[in-house]
Design brief:
This protein has two domains: 97 residues, Alpha-Beta Barrel (TIM Barrel), CATH 3.20.20; 112 residues, Enolase-like C-terminal domain (TIM Barrel). Helix 5 links the parallel strand 4 and strand 5. The strands form two sheets. It has a six-stranded parallel beta sheet. A two-stranded antiparallel ribbon has the order 7-8. Helices cover 35% and strands 12% of the residues. It is globular, with a radius of gyration of 19 Å. It is of the alpha/beta class and 231 residues long.
């Protein structure tokens, strides 16, 4: 969240110039419609979404309905993580798709979402849902029930990004994923080669395994403690 709409417009412009094709903007009460409207006016054709991180309540429906005018790709997690019923009530009132993030920790959560109509998109975070197999099961279920998916990155090193890339390239991940270049968060990552943008994309490794090697020198540089486990 930026201090003003003008500063948000500048920040978004910087990332679009760097090659990013989808922009996710954080919102909260008092920092929402005017901020998003300023970006939409400046970049009428950009793929924009808003991430609320559970900052709203169902009583905020009049404000959230105004966001329909901005033609967002989605509004992510507007209500509490446990509020699947209220998300369903909200989705019924909005043209904009709701995306659930923190609400989806398992296949059972995805099934409840689909049954209630709590949203139309799932942000699948590999680490949160329990790994590669769990992420694939959720995506398979979503495809069968008309839900779109994308892979949400976290503040991960290249190792975590490698797992995200493996999931994000599965059939059924139909929206741009949230996997950034390593340099966005780290001056030096611990994998080689580093994850970089190629234009607006990240090249997916084709070799067996993760596709990245651990940079042992970098790992040693950042290691603060080691534990030896004897079998």
């Amino acid at each position: 969240i930026q201090p003003s709409p003008a500063e948000l417009v500048t920040k978004v412009g910087d990332y679009l110039a760097a090659g990013y094709r989808r922009i996710k903007m954080k919102i909260q009460p008092g920092h929402d419609y005017d901020y998003l409207w300023a970006v939409r006016e400046a970049y009428p054709n950009a793929m924009l979404m808003a991430d609320a991180n559970s900052a709203y309540r169902l009583s905020d429906l009049p404000l959230l309905k105004r966001l329909d005018d901005l033609h967002l790709t989605m509004i992510e997690q507007p209500l509490g993580a446990d509020d699947l019923v209220e998300h369903a009530a909200l989705q019924a009132e909005l043209a904009t798709a709701l995306c659930l993030d923190e609400s989806i920790n398992s296949l059972a959560d995805a099934a409840t979402m689909a049954k209630l109509g709590s949203g139309r998109i799932i942000n699948v975070k590999v680490a949160r849902v329990g790994g590669l197999s769990a992420a694939k099961r959720i995506q398979d279920f979503a495809s069968q029930h008309g839900l779109e998916c994308w892979c949400g990155g976290m503040l991960a090193t290249g190792i975590g990004r490698a797992f995200d890339l493996a999931v994000a390239t599965l059939p059924g991940f139909t929206l741009p994923n949230d996997i950034s270049a390593a340099a966005r968060y780290f001056d030096q990552d611990i994998t080689t080669p580093p994850v970089t943008l190629n234009g607006a994309m990240i090249d997916v490794p084709t070799q067996v395994g993760l596709g990245f090697e651990v940079d042992q020198a970098a790992l040693a540089k950042f290691t603060t403690q080691t534990v030896q486990v004897n079998r």
